[in-house]
Amino acid sequence: MGKKKALEQTVYDFVEDKIKAKDWLPKQHIKEMDVAKALDISRTPIRGAFKRLEADGILKIVPYKGAEILEPEIDSSAFQERTNFLEVLVSYHFQTLELDEVDFDTDGLKETYDKMADDKFGDQDLFEDREVDFWHDLLQYCRNSYMRGMMLDTLRYILPKTGHLKSIIQASRDKKLKHYQFVIDYLEDNNYPYVRRELRILFNQLNMNVIQGV
């Protein structure tokens, strides 16, 4: 192995070890200059290592900002586990709203839904950003900020940015929009049992798609 390749491998291993040790977390940006200082090397092998890390789905190179650490790819088992966990939390949340007789304001949901529908055939990342916004509106009456954050974090986890699950979830846009429209309709009537049922059906369908790989 030549000196350049050896240095690239050193950088690759350094970044990978930092991520595995959770010293660097998903969404965090790392800069070539910082890695160069840490390893006392030039930037040339760092660029090569970053390209390899991007090809392996570990980093995403961002022009003029270095590289962003990506969420680790999840397998079908982890996806189902997180989806089932989210369903439990969401069901509890809407049951609480039902008991408190909350009059749900759907204006924000409708606006975000329209943006999602407009992006249905567009960029996957943009659609999922809209979807996270939709869930922010969906959870607007959650008084427990910790629980709300947990639900949103779990949602982001089941929106994979890389790997084979990304294409499966991307193909589920129509189903998501269909169920989200029903959710809005039921919320306008404050029909929380039907909201819980509709989201349960959606989660089950997503799990089936992942299991079947379609």
UniProtKB/TrEMBL annotation:
Keyword annotations: DNA-binding, Transcription, Transcription regulation
Domain of life the protein comes from: Bacteria
Domain HTH gntR-type: 5-72
GO terms of molecular function: DNA binding; DNA-binding transcription factor activity
Protein name: HTH gntR-type domain-containing protein
Organism: Alloiococcus otitis ATCC 51267
